[in-house]
Design a protein that fits this description.
There is one protein chain. The chain has helices spanning 14-34, 44-57, 126-144, 152-165, 270-279; strands spanning 61-62, 74-78, 81-83, 98-107, 110-119, 169-170, 176-178, 185-189, 206-209, 212-214, 220-222, 229-231, 237-239, 242-246, 251-253. The chain has 5 helices and 15 strands. The termini are far apart. The strands form 5 sheets. Strands 1, 2, 4 and 5 form a 4-stranded antiparallel β-sheet that branches. By secondary structure, it is an alpha+beta fold. The longest helix has 21 residues, at 14-34. The structure holds 2-amino-4-trifluoromethylsulfanyl-butyric acid and cobalt (II) ion (CO) (2 copies).
């Protein structure tokens, strides 16, 4: 099976699904782990250090360090940053920010890639809340369309139609991707599209669904660091990412949160909050 660009699309069997599930679960657990630390005043560099330590403590390698020269274990993208925000000790999160944290592990040679939005503090504006909620629902609508017999176009259509019905826009410059023993593999997953178009989905395909949704226009630009992508109109942007494997009757989500965290605000056990207090 090949994608539109003629690249081979790998198909994975049950044992490979199991290995991918382990990698995905560790990536999701990494996002769980840092949740209590995402608070006003924390630097994104500090969060990145916690992320890297957690991955290594669990026998994994941070996939992004050195990937095309990328310098960190995570991408941390607040407010109008669309994706690939580089963590820095000089960049502190503030009350009212919304922020995406995207992590990828390599565990026993297999990649696990996931991201979530977080609320920083409690005073999150209604526009920001609605954008984050819409983006989560858009990702889940894409996942609901990820089943045998459907096409990549069905996934893109499900996402785009929901987003545009809510007067927001889907970023077109970045998409999801096949993933397995390779970080960014075939096929490319557009988060927009037409019903019935594109590659037909078959059991064994593994890819990410990671829509970036802008409150304003879809246009983006990359800053001079070569990574940080922002909205051209400086409107807010949100993103969630899950990694899925197509099964006989739908798909399996490899990156579900072991702690049951889906979208913010995240209700945390008192214990986790106290630990966050002590560690940050
Ligand atoms: N994790 C991102 C994705 O979802 C890729 C980050 S690559 C980096 O595909 F180099 F920017 F880290
Ligand atoms: Co990805
Ligand atoms: Co990612």
């Amino acid at each position: 099976m090949v994608d539109r660009a003629g690249r081979r699309v790998p198909l994975h069997g049950p044992e490979e699904f199991e290995a991918l599930h382990k990698a995905g679960r560790l990536a999701a657990a990494t996002l769980d782990h840092i949740t209590p630390h995402v608070r006003p005043g924390v630097s994104t560099g500090h969060l990145d250090k916690l992320i890297e330590a957690y991955m290594r403590d669990h026998g994994a390698i941070p996939a992004t360090i050195g990937y095309n020269g990328y310098p960190a274990a995570s991408c941390i993208s607040p407010n109008h940053v669309v994706n690939h925000g580089i963590p820095s000790d000089d960049k502190r999160l503030a009350e009212g920010d919304i922020v995406n944290i995207d992590v990828t592990v390599i565990l026993d040679g297999w990649y696990g890639d996931t991201s979530r939005m977080y609320f920083v503090g409690e005073k999150i504006g209604v526009k920001a809340r609605n954008l984050v909620d819409l983006t989560y629902r858009a990702m889940m609508a894409g996942i609901a369309a990820a089943k045998p017999g459907n096409t990549l176009g069905d996934i893109g259509f499900a996402i785009q139609s929901l987003v545009e019905a809510n007067r927001c826009s889907v970023v077109r410059d970045f998409g999801g991707h096949g993933i397995g023993r390779v970080f960014h593999d075939a096929p490319h997953i557009d988060h927009f599209g037409k019903r019935g178009q594109g590659l037909k989905l078959v059991p064994g395909m593994v890819f990410t669904i990671e829509p970036m949704v802008n409150a304003g226009k879809a246009d983006v630009k990359i800053l001079s660091d070569g990574w940080t992508t922002v909205t051209r109109d400086r409107s807010l942007s949100a993103q969630f990412e899950h990694q899925v494997g197509i099964t006989e009757d739908g798909c399996e989500i490899f990156t579900l949160s072991p702690a049951g965290l889906t979208q913010p605000p995240y209700a945390l056990p008192q214990e986790a909050l106290a630990q966050g207090e002590a560690l940050s």
